[in-house]
Amino acid sequence: MAKILRKDRLNEMISRLASRNTAVFGPSPEADGAISQFRLMQTSDEIDLERVLTRLSVKSLFFPRTEPMMRFDIAKQSIDMQQILPDEQKRVVFGCRPCDAASLAMLDGLFNWDYADAFWNRRRENTTIVSIACTRKDDFCMCTSLDLAPDSSFGSDVLLKAASDGAGWQVEAISDKGRRFVESLGDLLVEQNPPELAATTVVEKKFDVAKVCEWAAQDENFESDLWSQMSERCLGCGVCTYMCPTCHCFDIQDEGNAYRGVRRKNWDSCSFSLFTLHTSGHNPRPTQASRWRQRIMHKFNYYPSKFQHRSCTGCGRCTRYCPVDMGVAETLQAIGR
Amino acid sequence: MTALENFKKRAKELLAGGHVDVVIGYRLGTTAELRRTVFVRSAEAADQLVLDGHCRENLAGYLTRPEVWDGEGVVAIFVQPAGIRTINILAAEGQIDPQRITLLAFELAGSEAIKELPGSSVDDFAGLIENLKSQPAETDLAAEIEKLESLSPQQRFEFWQEQFSKCIRCYACRQACPMCYCRRCIVEQNQPQWICASAHDLGNFEWNIVRAFHLAGRCIECGNCERACPVNIPLMLLNRRLAREALEAFDHFAGIRPDQPPALASFKQDDPQHFIL
């Protein structure tokens, strides 16, 4: 027996969750100048279920591009500081893709490494990830090259697979949180014989990631000519890092004046030329080549050695949105050869 | 011989004869529509050069990148008229020596065919650029700009507020722009922090407006910024409007000659002064 969520009951699901103070976030359509991302959904027809992948990744719901951390008031004798933590709003992300779901699981270790990051954890604890397996892909998708798949459940609480008749999805609870969610839906889900499922899309491997990680781990390759060759046209902007669901560097900025202000956490990028500029004036990564090397090494060498995951899910956004058609695939294919 | 074949022949001759150190051009990209910048340093490698309707990127920004070219020696570069104007401006602002640049100039003709423009140094194209000033190209922007200008200032403010709210401060617009060559951008100054670095509505407004103003009278409307923007902000609308302002206020058409005084860094006796006196 399988549990089915019918498309024509999505609206009911959203209202039922709303009545339980649970907000539903889903992929929004790219129309009227707005870009595709995860937005609060009031009705099911606001959800874009057709697009292969949102432009902005699900990362924005947990690690927004800018967020306040605390406010401060400076008086004569004292400084009053107030932490600003995210609210504990219960949320369901409906329509996440397996590559984005995987990124969340990959980042949990990082945000709980040397201390527990409340900004990340609060949102993670209060959010249920309901992913939909991919029946379509585009030229930039490369999840299978990272040992993931268009129907991978890694990082998802619930995984939905489309029925071939287009009427809805087969629902599979993956985690405990997912099981509780599925149970809470009760009679919203129909129990029936497992339906015929729509074919999962096939994503050909673009590179051999094991070979890449092995090569990157060898000390002498740090000085390889490959880095400057591959990065020659890199503009040093932040598109790849900001669109990437696993990139997590941030900058802290105080905004205010001598009397009061707010401390904020903003996205930052290791591609920027001044990212590693020291107060002394020395910059250990003075060339775009050294910054490109850092990007690849971090994702395929340093991060896996600390957190047992390569910090890449093969979503392809780095290549899809790079202004000069770069992205990790080209470099990794060159290494693989 | 097609234009591409002719260009390849020229590139190979320049490289084989040791006349240039590098040819900056285009090659095929990840998909059928994408093209990548290629830095060709040998005659054999010149075979990968392509030239077609997808080659829209203005490559002249690479001329100020030390990793590509140290400013010494000679470089050849594929440029459209916007690229020629770029070289003029970079020369006028003291960033490059135009005598060290061999231009492989082309134009994308209406039906996406390539038209080779005769000449190889900036001076060969002076007449062409003069013509562009007096006969500006038709753009699709005209209708959109007209619509914007029919709005009240408040409505226009709301339009841009909405557009800039999408900005994620990736600075792809800045990095893709050949005229943004500052080693330390104003937004990277933090003593004081002139412009909010945060990607909230105010910070984004500050950033986008400041960049537009820093390009007033310098932007040659190549479109690199708008193409680079990952969140589809219609930057060309701003650029077009400011270019028109520069022309109307100062009769300034950016990039007309390599010794053209920059509009906002020079003074003429007949400059309008009604807002000062």
Can you walk through the features of this model?
The complex is a heterodimer of chains A (about 325) and B (about 280). Chain A is of the alpha+beta class. Chain A has helices at about 10-20, 100-110, 120-125, 175-185, 210-215, 225-230, 240-245, 290-305, 315-320, 330-335, and strands at about 1-5, 20-25, 40, 65-75, 80-85, 90-95, 125-130, 160, 170-175, 190, 250-255, 260-265. In chain A, strands 3-2-6-7-8-9-1-10 form an eight-stranded mixed beta sheet. A four-stranded antiparallel beta sheet of chain A has the order 5-4-12-11, with no helix packed on it. In chain A, a hairpin with a 4-residue loop joins β4 and β5 (about 80-85). In chain A, α5 (about 210-215) packs across α8 (about 290-305) and α5 (about 210-215) crosses α10 (about 330-335). The longest helix of chain A has 20 residues, at about 290-305. Chain A is globular. By secondary structure, chain B is of the alpha/beta class. Chain B has helices spanning about 5-15, 80-90, 125-135, 140-150, 155-165, 170-175, 200-215, 225-230, 235-250, and strands at about 20-30, 35-40, 75-80, 100-110, 115. Chain B has a five-stranded mixed beta sheet. In chain B, β3 (about 75-80), α2 (about 80-90) and β4 (about 100-110) form a beta-alpha-beta unit.
